[in-house]
What we know:
Layout: H1 2-22, H2 24-35, E1 44-58, E2 66-78, E3 83-93, E4 95-100, H3 108-114, E5 118-134, E6 141-163, E7 169-175, E8 183-194, E9 198-207, E10 221-232
Antiparallel strand pairs: 1-2, 1-10, 2-3, 3-5, 4-5, 5-6, 6-7, 6-8, 8-9, 9-10
Amino acid sequence: MRRPFIARLTILAVLLASPLLSAPLQGQVLIGYLFGEKLASPTFNMGFEVGLNFATLDGLDGAERTNKPVFGLFADWRFSKHFHLGGALLPIAGRGAAGITPIPTGDPDLDSQVQGGTMHRNIGMLEIPVLIKWAPKRETGFRIGVGPSFGLITSAHDRYDATTVAGTPYVLERDIGPQLPDWDLGVSFEVEWRFPILSIAARYTHGLSDIAQAGAASAVHIRTLTGTGRIYLGKKGKKAAAPS
C-alpha cells in the first residue's frame, strides 16, 4: 500500500518541478526574485541540479548501460575553511539497464514468448545524496567529496523485446515494483568544479543494497555514473566572517 502513495507523491513532485526543468534559468530568476538573499550567503547556496545518469545493474546477465535524466534541488553549506556539506533532493533520478538476458518469471506463457530476446529494466528513484566535500579554495575551483546516497525506489518495470516465430518484433512490459525493496543504500564519490554561479560535477554511486527480486538466485546492485550541472539561485549577501 505504501508504494502507490510514494509513486503518487513522486509524480506530484515531478509535475511541480517540470516547468523549472524545461526552463531552469527562468526558475532561477523567479525564485531569486521571491526569496532574494535568503537563498545564498557567504557560507550557504542552493539551486537546481540537472544531469544524466549512466546506469547499469551488476548481477544480471548481459546488462548494459542505460541513460536516465536527473533533476532536482541541491544545497551546499561551507562549515569550515575547506570543508562543505552538500546534499540534494532528486525526484527524477532513474536507474536500470538494457540488453539483459530475460529472467525466468515462473509464468510458462511469458517465459516462452521472451526466450531468446532481451530485457530492459527501468527503475524510478528519488535520490538523496549527502556528501562531505573538501575544497582548496573557498568560493570556486576544484572540490572532491564522498558520502552516502539514499535511493527510494518508486517504480520498476521490465520491458521485453521479443520476436515471434514468424519474425515479427513485439514488446511486453511487466510491473515488478512490488517485488523489489523500497530502498537502495549506496556510497557516492564526486569530483566538482565550481564557477561563480554554477558548477559541473561527476558522481559515481556504488549501490550496496541487493535489489534483486524476491527469491532471485544472485544479488543485483546498481552502479551509476552521474554527470551533472548545478545552477545556483539568489545572489550572495554581504560578506561575513568565514568559519574557521
